[in-house]
Amino acid sequence: MTLTVTVWGEFVHERRNAEIAALYPDGMHEAIAQCIRAGVDDAAVRTATLDQAEHGLDEPTLASTDVLIWWGHLAHEQVDDRVVDRVQARVLDGMGLIVLHSAHLSKIFRRLMGTRCNLRWRAADDRELIWTVAPQHPIAAGVPHPVVLERHEMYGEYFDIPPPDEIVFLSSFSGGEVFRSGCCFRRGKGKVFYFSPGHETYPIYRHPDIARILCNAVRWAAPQPSAIDTHTSPRSNKNWWVSA
Ligand code: ZN
């Protein structure tokens, strides 16, 4: 069965800053999409960006998306609330959502969390170690312990999110901080994974261990067939005892 993945990228930094454009000449969304194409055999991967009509997330596109990946930073407030409503409804109906790095402040993530989602940060070439704290979790399969990012932006606690259903990764930084860098949530029928690596001035989405985590997350977040149709009432069971 083909898994349809849509990678949403804000695509603003890459067109304003030559250093970032050199790292991601086709945009960060294309680099992320390439990770999934290379690592998930049965995935059909497409991309969408802020500047497209309805940000590339019209009704038919979302209806046919199994897993949506979201990277944004500068333009969270430019995302149309109607598109946020639509994405939220799809998550509640079972679409997987992977929220990356600075998208912790995206409208859709704050909406789904119900908290401010603030954190501490410092862009100073810290060394980040990503430790697996749930070794049995499917997102951790085959991931080195720890993953080493020689240079990255520091994201630190306190991270203002509700308690995650599962924490898969915990990062430590050369400055001494720690951060819940891989967190799973369930909202309605949908699964949400927040993963913090991915600052735009470092080639994080070209790192093979990061690609592995993203591919594992896509498989984990993919919708599962439901045993119960929650849209119908249990009327058919009303007289079960009469015929018994
Ligand atoms: Zn950043």
CATH class of the domain at 3-116 and 181-225: Alpha Beta
CATH-wise, what's the superfamily of the domain at 3-116 and 181-225?
Class I glutamine amidotransferase (GATase) domain
Low-confidence stretches: none
From the helix content, strand content and strand pairing, which structural class follows? alpha/beta
Helix proportion of residues, in percent?
A: 10-25%
Ligand inventory = zinc ion
Strand content: 25-35%
| Sequence of strands across the biggest β-sheet | 2-1-3-4-9-8-7-5-6
What does the largest sheet look like? 9 strands, mixed
Cα-based radius of gyration, to the nearest Å: 19 Å
Please count the beta strands (DSSP E, at least 2 residues each): 9
The ordered string of helix (H) and strand (E) elements is: EHHHEHEHEHEEEEEH
What is the annotated CATH architecture of the domain at 3-116 and 181-225?
A: 3-Layer(aba) Sandwich
Shape: globular
Average pLDDT metric? 95
How far apart are the first and last residues' alpha carbons, in Å?
40 Å
CATH topology value of the domain at 3-116 and 181-225: Rossmann fold
